[in-house]
Structure formats: structure tokens, C-alpha cells
Specification:
This protein is mostly helical and 128 residues long. The protein contains seven helices and no strands.
């Protein structure tokens, strides 16, 4: 495991989990990390659903990155969006989502992103 205290810019699963769930991270930063992590998951889901399910298991609608990306993009990205459209959103490097998650939506997205294996796969998805 990489010590992020001495190398803060190194992306690790622990760093991803800390950024999406920590109460010491500003609300806008937390939204950014949730948004970017969900985009990577959604892109991989659209690229190859069988591989995605192999990596993360079958997901319910509200545990799907498509559900939250649709909400956070204000409908610009939806369950029928192509992986290339999602990848273009990632490349645009828009840090702030068009619409923030709050309340139970945010809680469920954070719960999904911090569940076992997800942060590890987000890191793998970022590296593809």
C-alpha cells in the first residue's frame, strides 16, 4: 500500500474511498470524487457489461453508476449513452457535475463506491 500522507497525489483505492466518504473533505470535493468515480464505472459498464459484472457483480438500478450519472449530468448521460460519450465526459475534465447528489442519493452513491472491491476497480478503470 502506498502512503498517501507522504505522496498525496498517488491514486490508491484507500485514497478514493477516503475522498468519497470523509467528512474532512469539502462537500464540493466529495461531489467531484463521486462524479469522476461514477463516470469511470459507468464507462466500463457500457464498454463491456459482462466484464463489468465479473468485476463488480450484478447491480440493482439504484446501485448502478448509470442511475447516478443520469441524475448528476441532468439527463445528458443516461443508461443508453455509449462508452465513447462517457469517455468524452471524462476527457472534458469537468470537475463539477452539472447537478450534485444530496441526501439519500449521495449516501447510496458513497455506499456503492466504498463497498468492497469497487474502489480497487475504479483505480483499474482509471488506468485503462
Amino acid at each position: 500500500m502506498t502512503d498517501t500522507a507522504t505522496t498525496p497525489n498517488v491514486l490508491t483505492p484507500d485514497h478514493i474511498r477516503d475522498m468519497v466518504r470523509s467528512d474532512q473533505v469539502s462537500a464540493s470535493n466529495q461531489q467531484r470524487w463521486v462524479w469522476r468515480s461514477l463516470l469511470y464505472c459507468f464507462r466500463e459498464m457500457q464498454r463491456d457489461i459482462k466484464q463489468y459484472r465479473s468485476d463488480l457483480g450484478r447491480v440493482d438500478n439504484r446501485n448502478s453508476p448509470a442511475y447516478w450519472c443520469d441524475w448528476m449530468s441532468d439527463g445528458r448521460l443516461n443508461k443508453n449513452s455509449a462508452a465513447s460519450d462517457i469517455h468524452n465526459s471524462i476527457l472534458e475534465d469537468v470537475k463539477d457535475p452539472p447537478r450534485n447528489l444530496n441526501g439519500s442519493h449521495l449516501d447510496k452513491a458513497v455506499q456503492f463506491l466504498t463497498s468492497e472491491g469497487v474502489a480497487e476497480n475504479v483505480l483499474k478503470f482509471v488506468q485503462r
